[in-house]
Amino acid sequence: MKVLPLLAASAALLIGGCDLAPGYRVPGVALSSHYKEAPSPGDPPLEASSDWWLEFHDKELTDLEAQVDISNPDLAAALAAAERSRAYAAEAEAGLFPEIDAGGGLSYNRQSNNRPLRSPSQPTYYGANQIAVQTASYELDFWGRVRDLIKAANATAEASRDALAQARLELHAELAGDYIDLRGIDAEAKLLSDTIANYQAALDLTSSRLAAQIAPPIDVERAKAQLETAKAQATDLSVRRAALEDAIAALTGQSAAAFKIGRSAGQLAFPKRPRRGGTAQRSGEFGYRGGASGLLPSLLAWPHRRRAGHRPLPPDAGQQLLLTWPLGELAAFRRRPSQGGT
Predict the structure, then answer these.
(1) Who's near 290: CB < 8 A, 6+ residues apart?
(2) What is d(CA 178, CA 147) in angstroms, rounded to the nearest whole number?
(3) E strand or H helix at 133, and its extent?
(4) C-alpha separations of 51 from 76, 89, 153 in Å
(5) φ, ψ for residue 99 (rounded to 5)?
């Protein structure tokens, strides 16, 4: 009769150690054998971990991109998550080996001279050192519980590594985009500065013509409005540049209050676009940049281009051209009265 309780307890322990989780099956998804954007055989491979921003040949951009890997807090958090997942995977793999729990202590003590009931024969200094093995256990993985934990931990660690690579690529791309936008604003600000100088000269000339009574007052007001509009645009550019500068400071882990990028209107050396397989479509065939001189050559060359195999004109191209056709300029003049007052 004493054997039955022992068998019941053993059966309960065995059932408790069973792995009742169903086997994982990868969902069936139809995948293509290659991507349609696959590079040509002669193209160099594109690696997400490579320093692709070096293709811009801009020293300041290169220095800023280097700060992302060092000081960006989002990238540091992704790196910590990847290291944590790797530690969890190592902890799960430790379940394949026996586990021994041990404890110990080392101390060096001194008795007080005023301790009650202290015997003269007791030492003043004494040690209380102990090392004790508490438990030793080993789990026999009959039902695959430990192996399933290892698989799950390794999958989580792999996902964390991919998330780290994705975060790094996104942060570097965001920094490069902000930097290129900032340099574009610098070039636009230089053009606008030259425009403001020309508008100021036009206002001075119009004021002189008004003083000589050969221009109406409305011309001066128009010149003033034109100048103030350009100045307002310059202020808007300054605000946009400050926002991009603060964004770059946040990406590089620096204080936005002290971070500053010098102005430069130089043109970046944009990298060449990698060649792709297949036939490339030409875009911007009928790019129109204002004035009849830019529109008429494209229209006159259209029959020859079509015979040469170029793509047809888009259906809405006529509407676009009609909407952007310049109508000319308005002019105001005033006839001075004759000396006789007629």
Answers:
(1) 324, 326
(2) 46
(3) strand 130-137
(4) 18, 30, 30
(5) -115, 125
Longest dimension (CA), the chain: 143
pTM: 0.62
Relative to beta strand 125-127, strand 108-110 is antiparallel
Contact 65, 51 (CB under 8 A): yes
Helix, strand, or coil (residue 93): helix
DSSP-assigned letters across all residues of 321-336: HHHT----------PP
Tokens coding 146: 């430990």
The set of residues, in sequence order, having a beta carbon less than 8 Å from that of 167 and lying 6+ positions away, is: 74, 75, 78
Write the CB contacts of 321 (distance below 8 Å, at least 6 apart in sequence): 288, 295
Backbone angles phi, psi at 189, to 5 degrees: -65, -35
Q: How many residues does the chain have?
A: 342
From first to last of the 342 residues of the chain, give the pLDDT tens digit: 567 777 777 766 666 656 566 677 778 888 877 777 766 666 665 555 578 888 888 999 999 999 999 999 999 999 999 999 999 999 999 988 888 877 777 777 777 877 777 777 777 777 776 666 677 788 888 778 888 899 999 999 999 999 999 999 999 999 999 999 999 999 999 999 999 999 999 999 999 999 998 989 999 999 999 999 999 999 999 999 999 999 999 999 999 999 999 998 777 777 766 554 443 333 333 333 333 333 333 333 434 444 444 444 444 444 333 333 333 333 333 444 444 443
Rg for the chain (alpha carbons), in Å?
A: 39
